[in-house]
Amino acid sequence: MALKLSRLLEFDDIVIQCHDNPDADALASGFALFRFFKKNGKKPEFIYGGQKPVTKSNLVLMIEKLGIPVEYVTALNKKPELLVTVDCQYGESNVTGFEAENIAVIDHHQVSGNMPKLCEIRSSYGSCATVMAGLLKKEGMDINEDTDLATALYYGLMTDTNGFEEVSHPADKDLRDFTKYRSADIIEFKNSNFSSEELTICAQALDNVYYDKERPIAVVGAKPCDPNILGIISDMLLEVDSVECSVVYSILPYGVKLSVRSCVKETMANELASYIAKGAGGGGGHRVKAGGFLKKELLKGMGIEYDETHIMGFILQRFNRYFDETRIIYAGEHVESKRGYRQYIKKEFSMGYVKAAELARPGSSLVIRTLEGDVRIKVTDDVYLMLGIEGEVYPCREEKFRASYRLSGEDYVYPAEYEPEVIDAVSGKRLKVTKYAHSCICTGGSGIYAKKLKERVKVFTEWDRDNYYLGVEGDYIAMRMDDPKDIYVIAGHIFAKTYEPLRPKNA
Ligand SMILES: [Mn+2]
Asked: Kind of pairing, strands 45-48 and 14-18?
């Protein structure tokens, strides 16, 4: 599923299509692709179909101000050689079907149905604009040289992530932080975002909230509206004294948009969103605010009827099951019985490390942007950054480093998709951590007690009292043999690569 845009240049007669009733993300993504084809001497058409042309004022403004050459069509003059759908997938119910000799798909939603060979789908990205930014970068195109394009992509991400509040993937953060957009345009679009009808929808929803009697949760459905309205409603619900977590949803013709909030550390909104959407779509964001999407086709495939009653029932059932199924452990305060645990020892394997002081002056602070989130550390002479077997980044003190790792002469190769970057908060300078990384071998260290999980567990470790590590069925819960209060979770696939059962020495 790794598409190179340059592969599409072998075609001549090209149509770019976004979903019916396009939003800013779809328009921005199509615009980016249009610019790419133009730059490479092609003459693409950029279109969308559906019931009616765009009327929403922020989108009309966006199209005018940025010069987006999109057209509303009901038919194509002839069958194109290539049709690329952006921010949607060919064959979906919200994508008017046009015939073409070849199909390509660029999207960030969950996959539904069969995909053509030419496709790039990054379901963990907050917007299709981010997917496009990545594809253009691979072709050596700098979006910051084209302010209209930069502004469009920035606005696409912004509107798809509730004003960046539901951003989680590092690629999304890069687009948010390093794009040279025209701020006057963004301010103007932002201030013509809602119609007065949409504020009425907001008021109606607030009038119909379901407050659970047993749990501090609230759920409500709103009529189809701008997704940012959902964010506003959920933010308001969260401020209610009896509400700790909330879900607001809106049933659209092609799927259900969710906005999820939590103000307690025991529930991370992004995790709750992805739990609710599991199998039917996707969800993500961060601790307090998250968003999600349930695809109509996938819901129907699960036997859920596509109406208000059944969708509300589905969301409520998942919401309640989320709390019923989860055990919470506060390491340090909790004594875990060793029943069912076995002893394991770490295998020898190769990983990467960087001395933090090589990246920044001791005394300063660093933000490390990784797939798991932005990690902040204080730089001192004895801090090392470890790059784990799956590319995960975590800090380690020199003393522990010396005890558990030995150096290796081999070159370091980063094993995962998004290479972590360090960002200097003051200068904005970005460094690829992997450029400074060396290779080392993990040499076992003391053993652990571990048990394969059959249930969901949230562990607040001794290192971090505010954020839990989630373990689900198939992951392992572990505690150090030399300090059983040090409880943590190890992902199932990482456990298999890095631990082996401890055999009795004299057996
Ligand atoms: Mn989108």
From this structure: parallel
